Amino acid sequence: MAVKSIKINGRMVSARAGESILEAAEDAGIHIPRLCHVEGVSDVAACRMCLVKVEGNNKFVPACMTPVEEEMIVETETPKLQEYRRMIVELLFAEGNHVCAVCVVNGNCQLQDLAIEVGMDHSRFEYRFPVRGVDLSHRLFGRDDNRCILCTRCVRVCDEIEGAHVWDVAGRGSKSRIVSGLKEPWGKVDACTECGKCVESCPTGALFFKGSAVGEMERDRDKLKFLITARQKKEWTR
């Protein structure tokens, strides 16, 4: 396999041909913030948190979707990038109804973690307080659209790993929403296998296990990685 030599934050890094900047950085122990990326499924660059600067390109590029090239020079922590990331997190909080104190994943939420990482202690943008619903029709799980950030993790995990394709995106612009089936209540979608992969992949409290109290729910972040590896190597347990 061909190997590419690139420089990330002034450090020489070896990367496999076809690998993304995000993957190369991860392999080298260099952290790049992300929200929509899930290892083992396709990337869509929905969150824009992993934007990086590539020398010779006058625009920031998403690290998850940009393949490495020989002698590429990448910067991941410029002051402008850090400001962009903080602005993105502030916009996510202002656009939805993210009240951490009453959320089932308080203390175990990736959006919350990113807010701390980028130094956000308030949002400069006016809160929209949208009126969104909560779907409790499923016997095991619940969905709270107030906390959805449209990362589409649930869509891709359900489609590419479970093969059920319960979830999709409906609407356009500010009216975009994650929907189950053909805009049916989750509990009425026959395609759902009740595997819980979408719930485990959700970075916020938008999808949750029923019965979880405030701050009680924890994600098993290694579950999806195990399932993906087992599928690739055909190492299933019985």
Question: Could you please describe the fold and organization of this structure?
Answer:
The chain has 238 residues and is an alpha+beta fold. The protein has two domains: 3-72, Ubiquitin-like (UB roll) (Roll), CATH 3.10.20.740; 83-233, Alpha-Beta Plaits (2-Layer Sandwich). Helix content is 24%, strand content 16%. It is globular, with a radius of gyration of 19 Å. The model has no long low-confidence stretch (mean pLDDT 92).
The SSE order reads EEHEEEHHEEHEEHEH
Give the low-confidence spans.
none
Task: Kindly identify the CATH topology of the largest domain.
Answer: Alpha-Beta Plaits
Shape: globular
Count of DSSP H/I helices: 6
What is the average per-residue confidence, as pLDDT, rounded to a whole number? 92
- The amount of beta strand, in percent, is 15-25%
CATH architecture of the largest domain: 2-Layer Sandwich
Could you tell me how far the N terminus lies from the C terminus, measured between alpha carbons in angstroms?
34 Å
Largest sheet: 5 strands, mixed
State the secondary-structure class.
Answer: alpha+beta
The helix content, as a percent range, equals: 10-25%
Write down how many β-strands occur, each being a DSSP E stretch of 2 or more residues: 10
CATH class annotation of the largest domain: Alpha Beta
How are strands sequenced across the largest beta sheet?
A: 2-1-5-3-4
| Count of folded domains | 2
Secondary-structure blueprint:
Layout: E1 3-8, E2 11-16, H1 21-27, E3 51-54, E4 61-62, E5 73-75, H2 79-95, H3 110-117, E6 134-135, E7 141-144, H4 153-162, E8 167-170, E9 177-180, H5 197-201, E10 207-209, H6 223-233
Parallel strand pairs: 1-5
Antiparallel strand pairs: 1-2, 3-4, 3-5, 6-7, 7-10, 8-9
